[in-house]
């Protein structure tokens, strides 16, 4: 199923349940390597990136078994031979940026790892120098040869580390390493994203001692031994935001069951500026939109709790058909505007001011066409554009979309969208 066909112009009505978080599940799956006991991860999303991570774990000898309500992982039989660690499936490592979480997890478990440089979506350079500089302070030595990265440490020790930028991946790698290191690690300038908090919650349930998760300073006291646990992956705030902007763009009324409202303050604020009525209920988030969206003078992405870069492209899609002019400033990744050209093919009026800013002049109608997804969140944005546009839209390259959305076509059909996977 590599293409999605949409007959647009239909308001969305109904309710949909929000899946488990991709960005929480992946580092937690990596963290299961730190214990020889079984972890049961409930609400783990069945998406391409999770399948990829599980393939990597299995290549290391880890037992992973899907169940009806989640996945069970046991890393007791982890292959500790360094050559085996270097033989993780190359295409799996290169295709997914989150494979970098295995760096910290394997350092914590066996003190060494050799792996390909991780890949992922083409949304920016995303260098790993922040990870390397931080882990070096904990006694890790790095070497590079033939495109492979080797990291090893005779003894991992705590350190006082300050990140120059609140990188989510670097924060997670330091935490994964520090829980098994000798002594105490203080991490300053840490990422505050809810997915970092979820990783710390899982590790604490396994016996780790962590203080300050969700703040700019996190303190980790190395324990040397962790245990298995049951943990429920939280709902995906980016999926919830995607469906929220789908309702804002297409109009209608939608109940997003189990939407993590407390994590969506910046997103809800933008939706309200666009004219949406957003009400919190015991079931989740109720969104109602009966008028044309309103433009916003300036939307800037920022690390959490700011507006998430992962929802910048869906928000851009809505603003293309808003009343008035808007400016979007992307402050996290330099290639987030790859959706501009396909949106222009629908009739959107977007001007690239520079590599970090676009100006959007809202038009009354978009018109369906054929578009190609180039990355995950941009692909989801094109799907939303198809919902908003008149006539038929066809989106190809949908494997990118399935990396992060479990049942996006089914979910939207339940809301009344005329959408099919081919």
Structural write-up:
The protein is built from 14 helices and 23 strands. It has 422 residues and is α+β, with helices and mostly antiparallel strands. It folds into two domains: 204 residues, UDP-n-acetylglucosamine1-carboxyvinyl-transferase, Chain, CATH 3.65.10; 211 residues, Enolpyruvate transferase domain (UDP-n-acetylglucosamine1-carboxyvinyl-transferase, Chain, Alpha-beta prism). A hairpin with a 3-residue loop joins strand 15 and strand 16. The longest helix has 14 residues.
Helical residues, percent: 25-40%
Number of domains: 2
Strand order, biggest sheet? 21-22-1-23
- For the record, the CATH class of the largest domain is Alpha Beta
The appropriate CATH architecture of the largest domain is Alpha-beta prism
**Rg from Cα:** 21 Å
Identify the overall geometry: globular
Count of separate DSSP helical elements: 14
What percentage of amino acids are in beta strands?
A: 25-35%
Mean of pLDDT: 92
CATH fold-level label of the largest domain: UDP-n-acetylglucosamine1-carboxyvinyl-transferase, Chain
List how many beta strands DSSP finds: 23
Q: What oligomeric state do these chains adopt?
A: single chain
Distance between the termini: 5 Å
> Runs with pLDDT <50, length 5+?
120-126
The CATH homology group name of the largest domain: Enolpyruvate transferase domain
């Amino acid at each position: 199923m590599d293409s999605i066909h949409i007959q647009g112009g239909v308001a969305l009505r109904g309710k949909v349940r929000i899946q488990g978080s991709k960005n929480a599940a992946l580092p937690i799956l990596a963290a299961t390597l730190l214990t020889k006991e079984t972890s049961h991860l409930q609400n783990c999303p069945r998406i391409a990136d999770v399948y990829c991570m599980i393939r990597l774990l299995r290549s290391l000898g880890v037992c992973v078994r899907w169940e009806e309500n989640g996945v069970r992982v046991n890393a007791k039989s982890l292959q500790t031979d360094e050559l085996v660690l270097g033989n993780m499936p190359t295409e799996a490592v290169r295709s997914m940026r989150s494979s970098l979480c295995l760096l910290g997890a394997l350092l914590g478990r066996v003190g060494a790892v050799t792996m390909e440089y991780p890949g992922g979506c083409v949304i920016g350079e995303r260098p790993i120098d922040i990870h390397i500089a931080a882990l070096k302070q904990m006694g890790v030595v790095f070497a590079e040869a033939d495109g492979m990265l080797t990291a090893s440490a005779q003894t991992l020790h705590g350190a006082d580390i300050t990140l120059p930028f609140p990188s989510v991946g670097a924060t997670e790698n330091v935490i994964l390493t520090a829980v098994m290191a000798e002594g105490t690690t203080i991490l300053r300038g840490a990422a505050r994203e809810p997915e970092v908090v979820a990783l710390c919650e899982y590790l604490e349930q396994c016996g780790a001692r962590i203080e300050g998760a969700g703040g700019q300073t996190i303190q980790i006291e190395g324990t040397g031994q962790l245990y298995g646990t049951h943990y429920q992956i939280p709902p995906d705030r980016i999926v919830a935001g995607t469906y929220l902007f789908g309702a804002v763009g297409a109009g209608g009324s939608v109940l997003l069951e189990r939407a993590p409202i407390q994590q969506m303050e910046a997103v809800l604020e933008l939706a309200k500026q666009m004219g949406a009525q957003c009400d919190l209920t015991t079931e989740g988030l109720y969104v109602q939109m009966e008028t044309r969206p309103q433009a916003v003078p300036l939307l800037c992405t920022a690390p959490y709790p700011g507006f998430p870069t992962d929802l910048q492209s869906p928000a851009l899609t809505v603003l293309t058909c808003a009343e008035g002019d808007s400016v979007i400033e992307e402050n996290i990744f330099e290639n987030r505007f790859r959706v501009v050209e396909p949106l222009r093919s629908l009739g959107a009026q977007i001007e690239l001011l520079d590599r970090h800013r676009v100006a959007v002049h809202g038009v009354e109608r978009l018109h369906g066409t054929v578009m190609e997804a180039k990355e995950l969140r941009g692909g989801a944005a094109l799907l939303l554009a198809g919902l908003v546009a008149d006539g038929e839209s066809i989106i190809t390259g949908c494997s990118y979309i399935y990396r992060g959305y479990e049942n996006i076509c089914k979910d939207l059909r339940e809301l009344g969208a005329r959408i099919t996977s081919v």
